Amino acid sequence: MSSSAPSRADLARHSGYEFLSTTALMFGVVSLVRLLALPDSPLAISDPHLMLGTAGAVVALLLAALMYAPTGRASGGHFNPGVTVFLWADGLFPGRAVLPYVAAQLAGSVGGPALARLVWGDPVTRMHYALVAPAPGTGTTALFLIETAALIAVLAAVAVVMARPRWHILIPAVIAVGVGLVIATLGTVTGANINPARAFGPALLSGEYAHLWTYLLSPLVAGLLAGLVHRALRAAKPAAARPATT
Q1: pTM, whole model, 2 decimals?
Q2: Residue 164 has what DSSP assignment?
Q3: Could you give all domains of the chain from N- to C-terminal order, each with its CATH number?
Q4: Backbone Cα Rg of the chain
Q5: pLDDT tens profile 31-59
Q6: CA 144 to CA 163: how far, in whole Å?
Q7: Are 217 and 81 in contact (CB under 8 A)?
Q8: Phi, psi (5° rounding) for residue 5?
Q9: Three-point CA angle 215, 89, 185, nearest 5°
């Protein structure tokens, strides 16, 4: 999560790492849905709350592993356009790297489910590539607001850790735990997306786009708002610390 401007070679390499890591993340998510949610799986969990709690814990472990991996440390371990926008709006990520990172993440969003289809076969098609969807009766406005607020909450926790250099090693763990909690608590309500890369690939591959724009936009808005607010707070802190003069 560096603000230094990368060279073209570094940007290409780091974007490649984002693609590979997002592909691995989405492959894991789709595989997890196949193993835990489909009735014909020996590991299927019928209770939706228990299933989502289990899924949240496993996704948290996977996400932390990918962020702490050498490739994750090299690229900054975003794997989420909302996180990339957050860091850019916060002044901690170069603007020219935003589009390559987002493109890589969305490509990985397609690559992971497509790889899962090759590995698991027809069950992935039957479950619509783990397409994310809200509970029946959840309106578009409620979906947008809840998803936006959920990612803002995760990013706010990250901002608290970012303010303390000695805690920076904990940033991947904080993000992973936050995402896991969102999956466990909001999975039965909004689908617990909070990442455009979670929604884009499954929607594209399944051809089902009912809630896609909400799932794409809410994390970007959350990242932008959280980043701008945190940047303003950081800028105001030195001024607040200066003694008043007469």
Answers
A1: 0.92
A2: S
A3: 8-237 (1.20.1080.10)
A4: 18
A5: 999 999 999 999 999 999 999 999 999 99
A6: 28
A7: no
A8: -80, 120
A9: 40
